[in-house]
Design a protein that fits this description.
Layout (H helix, E strand, L loop, with lengths): L1 E4 L2 E8 L6 E5 L13 H5 L3 E5 L20 H15 L5 E6 L1 H12 L6 E5 L11 H7 L2 H10 L3 H12 L8 H8 L7 H10 L17 E6 L7 H8 L6 E5 L6 H4 L1 H13 L4
Parallel strand pairs: 3-4, 3-5, 5-6, 6-7, 7-8
Antiparallel strand pairs: 1-2, 2-4
Length: 277
C-alpha cells in the first residue's frame, strides 16, 4: 500500500501497529520492502514493524526534486524523521538499516539521537565514498542529462543482475522467485529516471568521521562472505562505534538476512529484546 509522508507518496509495509516499540527497516541500493520479507513477521513479535521503499527504489512513485531533494541523503533523513515522529507515539525506536539504508539510518541517528533507541547496521555502506562526486552530480541533475540517464540505464538490468548475484554467497538461494521480486519494480516506465535521480542526488556526508558520537546501543552485522560491502570495511565502521556489538553470519553474503534469516533473527531479536526498559 501507499502512504503520504511530507506530501510524498511512499510504498509502505507495516505489521503489528500496536507493538511495544517501533522497528524501522531501511533497504539497500536497488532493493525494496521485498528484501525484508523473511524477517518482518518474526520482528513484528517484538514491535511495530515499518518498512518502506526509499525514494528512487521499489514502487515508491517518482516525484520532482524539492528542497531538500528527496533523493538526497538529507531528503531521505528528513523523510525518515517524519515517519518516526508520526509513528513512534512515545515508544522506543529501533532503526535497522541494510547497506545504503544503514548510511541513512546512521546519519539520522547522528542528527536526531533523541529519536533513536538503538541501531542495527547490516553490511553498512558507510566506508565507501558516494558513487557520484558532488560537482558531477550538479551537472547530471539537469533535465537534458536526465533524458540521457534514462537511455544509459536501459542496460542497468544486466548490471543489476550481477550485483544481485554477487550479493549471495550461496547461488542456490537466488531463486527465480527472488529474482522476480527484485526486478518487479522495473515493470514501471519511470524506474530508470527514479534511479537516475537517486544516483545523481547529493549523498556526500561525514558519517564515518562521526561514528564515535553514537551513544545508543549499536549492533553491526554482516555476512562473512560479503562481496559488496567488504567485511573489513564493516569492521572499520564497527571499531569506531563505542560499545558496539558485531556478528558475522556464517556462509552468507551481502544479504545475510535473506540467506540465513534464522541466524540473523537469532542475533537481532536477542539484541532488541535486551532493550526492554
Amino acid at each position: 500500500m501507499q502512504k503520504t509522508v511530507l506530501d510524498y507518496p511512499v510504498e509502505w509495509l507495516e505489521v503489528n501497529p500496536a507493538g511495544e516499540r517501533l522497528i524501522l527497516l531501511l533497504h539497500g541500493f536497488g532493493a525494496s520492502t521485498f528484501s525484508w520479507r523473511t524477517v518482518t513477521g518474526p520482528l513484528a513479535e517484538l514491535g511495530h514493524v515499518v518498512a518502506y521503499d526509499r525514494p528512487g527504489f521499489g514502487f515508491t512513485p517518482i516525484v520532482e526534486r524539492g528542497d531538500p531533494d528527496c533523493y538526497s541523503l538529507a531528503g531521505q533523513v528528513l523523510l525518515l524523521k517524519a515517519i518516526v515522529e508520526h509513528n513512534a507515539k512515545g515508544r522506543p525506536v529501533v532503526v535497522v538499516g541494510h547497506s545504503a539504508g544503514a548510511l541513512v539510518a546512521t546519519e539520522f541517528a547522528l542528527l536526531h539521537p533523541e529519536l533513536v533507541s538503538a541501531l542495527v547496521l547490516e553490511s553498512p555502506a558507510i566506508w565507501s565514498k558516494p558513487p557520484v562526486p558532488r560537482f558531477a552530480g550538479a551537472i547530471m541533475r539537469g533535465a537534458a542529462m536526465e533524458h540521457l540517464g534514462d537511455r544509459l540505464l536501459k542496460s542497468f538490468a544486466k548490471a543489476g543482475m550481477k550485483i544481485l548475484n554477487d550479493s549471495f554467497f550461496d547461488p542456490a538461494k537466488l531463486t527465480d522467485e527472488v529474482v522476480s521480486g527484485y526486478t518487479a519494480p522495473m515493470s514501471r516506465d519511470e524506474w530508470r529516471v527514479a534511479l537516475w535521480r537517486f544516483m545523481t542526488a547529493v549523498q556526500s556526508n561525514s558519517v564515518r568521521d562521526n561514528l564515535w558520537r553514537l551513544e545508543m546501543p549499536v549492533l553491526v552485522i554482516t555476512g562473512d562472505h560479503d562481496r559488496i560491502v567488504k567485511v573489513e570495511d564493516t569492521f572499520k565502521v564497527a571499531e569506531r562505534i563505542t560499545g558496539h556489538s558485531i556478528y558475522l553470519v556464517p556462509n552468507t553474503g551481502h544479504l545475510a538476512h535473506e540467506e540465513d534469516p534464522t541466524d540473523f533473527l537469532r542475533v537481532v531479536t536477542r539484541f532488541i529484546a535486551k532493550l526492554r526498559a
